TrEMBL record:
PANTHER family, per database record: 1,2-PHENYLACETYL-COA EPOXIDASE, SUBUNIT E (PTHR47354:SF8), NADH OXIDOREDUCTASE HCR (PTHR47354)
InterPro entries: 2Fe-2S_ferredoxin-like_sf, 2Fe-2S_ferredoxin-type, 2Fe2S_fd_BS, Beta-grasp_dom_sf, Cbr1-like_FAD-bd_dom, FAD-bd_FR_type, Flavoprot_Pyr_Nucl_cyt_Rdtase, FNR_nucleotide-bd
GO MF, one example: phenylacetyl-CoA 1,2-epoxidase activity
Enzyme Commission number(s) of this protein: 1.14.13.149
Assigned keywords, A-Z: 2Fe-2S, FAD, Flavoprotein, Iron, Iron-sulfur, Metal-binding, Oxidoreductase
Domain FAD-binding FR-type: 2-106
Stretches assigned to the 2Fe-2S ferredoxin-type domain: 266-358
Pfam families: FAD_binding_6, Fer2, NAD_binding_1
Protein name: 1,2-phenylacetyl-CoA epoxidase subunit PaaE
Membrane among keywords: no
Cofactors required: FAD; [2Fe-2S] cluster
Species name: Massilia aerilata
Length: 358
């Protein structure tokens, strides 16, 4: 799973002025490796000005489409997103890691559910995959989408969403919320905030009639929507969240005191793709991921911000402290899973396994 594969770009479509949809040509021998679930993402790698740069982008195709496609929105100052929007063309080859991520739910043809989704900006990317896949896989289920943008011109996949609405008139409720463009209904004007959600739940949508909710967008929106949903009675375990990696700030680690009698170094063993590799690192100075990369191990990673879960692994022996976690569910942490990019050794010996998934 940690291996990158060179994939050729088959198509590039400009969705907005600063967002492109990139479709990859997957050769027959890699079809199995690149089978994906709705809501998953791909890690892309490119050498940009001599630097190995990796970023994760959500798949925006339905599972039934059998088409590997991601959306890349240009971020101000974003090294990879700027390069992608300027340089990716059909025929270009990009290193791509097989799909990862758990921003989804198991689907059952006989289910009769009402799903709710909140998206902002490019947060529509995994949500689009989830909506299309779900409506096809569960003929009796329906979806309500609230999609926040600045204005109509910045709506990614607008035509595709319109076509979906026309196709599923009775099963898809599509609502745009614009922050800089007046709307016919004042309730749908502004930003998607906790207070806005309270208004929506009071006057327009009954949360008790919703089975599951998906949220994808900036951190403040994520927390606000989740809080409002729980306040309205939705259990936390029925809320699925996917956070923008670009929306998280870089947190500074606060050094923890090490007693004089304690060892200052940790012996680390990494299991990945069935191979064992070992190295020694200082405690409380760098993450397991950074230390492993410095030791020459090709560790699996993408955002390094505790968001994408690409570096997820399980601690088999020893103990670590995790600074930031936006990607793992509570039950995963309870089972010993950590994000290696945010994990710092506490004990003198650590064994982590990247091959364990459950």
């Amino acid at each position: 799973m940690s291996k990158f594969h060179p994939l050729t770009v088959a198509q590039v479509k400009h969705e907005t002025r600063d967002a492109i949809a990139v479709t990859f040509d997957v050769p027959p021998n890699l079809k199995d490796a690149f089978q994906y679930q709705q809501g998953q993402h791909l890690t892309l790698r490119a050498m940009i000005d001599g630097e190995d740069v990796r970023r994760s982008y959500s798949i925006c195709s339905a599972v039934q489409d059998d088409r590997l496609r991601v959306a890349i929105k240009r971020v101000n100052g974003g090294l990879f997103s700027t390069w992608a929007n300027e340089c990716i063309r059909p025929g270009v080859t990009i290193d791509v890691m097989p799909p990862e991520g758990r921003f989804n739910l198991p689907l059952e043809p006989e289910s009769d559910r009402h799903y709710l989704a909140f998206a902002a900006g490019s947060g529509i990317t995994p949500i689009l995959s989830i909506i299309k896949t779900t409506l096809l896989a569960e003929p009796n289920s329906r979806f309500t989408l609230l999609y926040g943008n600045r204005a109509s011109s910045s709506v990614i996949f607008r035509d595709e969403l319109t076509d979906l609405k026309d196709q599923y008139l009775e099963r898809l409720n599509l609502v745009y919320i614009m922050s800089r463009e007046p709307q016919d209904i004042e309730l749908f004007h502004g930003r998607i905030t906790e207070d806005k959600c309270r208004q929506l739940f009071q006057h327009w949508l009954r949360v008790e009639n919703v089975d599951y909710a998906f949220i994808c967008g900036p951190e403040d929106m994520m927390h606000g929507v989740s809080a409002a949903l729980q306040e309205a009675g939705m259990p936390k375990e029925r809320i699925r969240i996917e956070l923008f990696a670009a929306s998280t700030g870089k947190s500074e680690r606060k050094p923890r005191p090490v007693t004089a009698e304690a060892r200052h170094q940790t012996d680390v063993t990494v299991v990945m793709d069935g191979v064992h590799a070992s190295f020694t690192m200082d405690k409380d100075k760098e993450s397991l991921l950074d230390a492993g990369l410095r030791a020459g191990i090709d560790m699996r990673y993408s955002c390094k911000g505790g968001v994408c879960s690409t570096c997820r692994c399980k601690v088999l022996e020893g103990q670590v402290e995790m600074d930031v976690n936006y990607a793992l569910e509570d039950y995963e942490v309870a089972r010993g899973f950590v994000l290696s990019c945010q994990s710092f050794p506490v004990t003198d010996r650590i064994v982590v396994d990247f091959d364990v998934h459950e």
